[in-house]
Every structure is written in structure tokens, then in C-alpha cells.
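We store chain and fold; thus.
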Amino acid sequence: MNHIIGWWEEFIVWLFTFSIATLIVAMFVVAQSGPLRSGSMQPTIEYGDNVLIEKISWKLGLRPLQAGDIIAFNQPRKLYKRLIALGGQRVMIRDCYVYVDGQPLISDKFNHPEHPDPRRRCYYNMGRMQPGVEVTVPKGHYFVLGDNSGLWTDPVKGEVTSMDSRFEQVGFVKQENVYGRIVLRIWPPWRFGVP
């Protein structure tokens, strides 16, 4: 009988240790979650929403990053933006529209249904971009914009609302600086869903 209890206790300790190790690997390799401390993706992701960041499928080529994805990257600090164009594509902002390869971004994959007029409003500060001038995204890079990037500064707080590819501080995002894709809003519960 003691032999069975000893084996059972050993199994429980092994299972607990394995579970903790799996959780740690999952948190650092496969996915991570945490709150976003930025208003640049509103209303898609509100300030303080907790999101799940998937970190591996696109690296393994199972689902490559695509225009319309919300990516997480370090450049110059942790930022979260919508992927607008891939390396080799041409981007232009003109007459309050973003164009990729000559086509305006009016597709639903770029436009969150809760947003009043996403990608179809004026960009008051173009940063380093010139209105109506096309730029080509270098190979191995991405062009990103915040969903709330129509204004450069919050009129109430005077803070930057979207630091994105229009500005030198971010510029074209290098592939190696991307560490994940935001796949789910997990908190608060009433905002649970795919962003």
C-alpha cells in the first residue's frame, strides 16, 4: 500500500512540475498576455485591455503575417500596430486615404466595425511622409499604422496617440523586431473577442 501511495505522490509532483514548466515555455515561446498601455489602437484595443499575443505560428510559416494583422514589436520600444504593407509594397497617404500598391484601404480587414471612419480620415501629421508621395517598404520590413492614427497628439492630454511608420522614431518595422501577433482581447470580459 505504501508503495502505491509513494508512486502516486511522485506522479503528482512530476505532473505539477511538468505543468509549471509547460506554462512557462508557453508564456515565453508560444504566447503571452498583458495589458496594452496605449490609445493608438482605439477602439479596436482600448487602453488597458489585456490581449493574447501569439508568438510562433508566423515564425514557423504556419500563418505568415498579413496586411490587416495587429503586430507587437520592439522599435524603439514595445508597440502594437496594424500591419498595412509588407516589404516590396508601395504606400501613399493622399486625400485622407491610405493607398497600398495604388489601391485605397477600404477593406473590412483594415477597418474595425466600432471605429467611426477608420483609414478614411485625414492624417493631420504626416511625420516624414509627404501627402501624395509613394514610399516603397524595404524587403524584410513592414509599414504599420495605429487604428487611432488620424491625430498626432491627443487634444486633451497633449500626448502622442499613434507612433507609427509615418514617423522616424518607428519608420519601417524590421521583421526581426516583431515578436508576435495580437489574436485575442481577453480582458475585461465584456470586450473579449478577436480584435
